[in-house]
Amino acid sequence: MRKVAIVGVGSTEFGELWDKSFRSIFLSAGLSALEDVGIGGKEIEAIYVGNMSGGKFIDQEHIAALIADHSGLAEFGIPAVRVENADASGGSAFRQAYMAVASGIHDIVIAAGIEKVTDANDPMEVLSTAIDQEWERFIGADLPAIYAIIARLHMHRFGTKEEDMAMVAVKNHRNAVHNPRAQFRKEISVEDVMGSPYVAEPLKVLDCAPLSDGASAVILASEEVAKKLCDDPVYIDACTQASDYFSIQNRRDILTFDAVVRASRKAYKIAGIEPKDVDVAEIHDSFTITEILAYEDLGFAKKGEGANLIREGETEIGGKIPVNTSGGLKACGHAVGATGIRQIVDLVLQLRCEAGKRQVNAEKALALNIGGSGATAVVTILSR
Fold first, then answer.
1. What's the 3-state SS for 285-324?
2. Count of CB atoms situated within 10 Å of the CB of 170
3. Which fold has domain 4-122+212-234?
4. For residue 83, which of 112, 116, 117, 56 has the smallest C-alpha distance?
5. pTM
6. Residue 261 CB: number of other CB atoms within 10 A?
7. What is the percent of the chain where pLDDT is above 70?
8. Contact between residue 258 and residue 244 where contact means Cβ atoms under 8 Å apart
9. Would you state the torsion angle of the CA atoms of residues 144, 147, 149, 153, taken in this order, to the nearest 10 degrees?
10. Is there a contact between 114 and 338 (Cβ–Cβ < 8 Å)?
11. How is domain 135-209+237-383 classified at the CATH fold level?
12. Which of 135, 153, 302, 358 is the most exposed place for a label (fewest CB within 10 A)?
């Protein structure tokens, strides 16, 4: 396996982009990534696109070919592949791009993610197709309800409080203030979160990430090519993926996302590091309880002690392990198919020391992208 580097990154803003089309969004992100590294489209050998549900959100399938065409790359005949893994579509597309370069099949490729949800009648209904339609959705559950069950059991078993989850939202909103691409660049308080209406008790409106429009793109290259394109590329030390039982009723313990545990432990082994060596992380926080669970499943805290990290400020900028310096899904926004790529973009900016007022001192960075209620997990470790 060859070493693989990230040589270019680009992203649109995330939010309700009513005045922008699906095509214009992905074109903007892709061009930004190409401009970042200073190359043209003719040098790209393949495209991997994360997109959860273009068919339901905008009535458009065959997304990868559309992107290749509208980006002006169809004339080169390069392969374009759409990857779908619910919320983990972006992370999964990134992993496919990584393997294509690491294996030697391609030397330079684009991994991108996009979602345009504001054109849909009921985006949450579409997102809830990521859970078991026969055993969960049919009896009335949706994605927030599944996470509410998980949150309530975590509270019962380990003493986690609603205020603890609220502190996750407060931290991530504070971080997003200085992120020019974030959907919600406004601080909130624990009282704001606690006073917001319940979506699925104990989860409130401000415990839930929005469904957003947006696109992100990264350019991956072999080490040999990367050294010719930039002086200090960011290297991919590991990129792993794991699965768990689809329906939560079949899982060993719904308070442990085994896919996250397996993917992260394999990534640590490949990268030759331990959880304590991670300097900054972008963690999937579709709901505030998800981030607390991730602290535990990634090995940043023991099982049941994830809330202690947020209580003690350990995951704040300036803390022991800063998490979601971008604002996370909660405040930066959750453009479902783009989220996994957006996480990589933000970590690359951190490792390049280009994160502005959100900058932390980091040599090793970790991204965790989760699909649905935890049936899919993609973990990526980067280093400068």
1. CCEHHHHHHHHHHCCCCCCCCHHHHHHCCCCCCCCCCCEC
2. 22
3. Peroxisomal Thiolase; Chain A, domain 1 (3.40.47)
4. 112
5. 0.96
6. 19
7. 100
8. yes
9. -150
10. yes
11. Peroxisomal Thiolase; Chain A, domain 1 (3.40.47)
12. 302
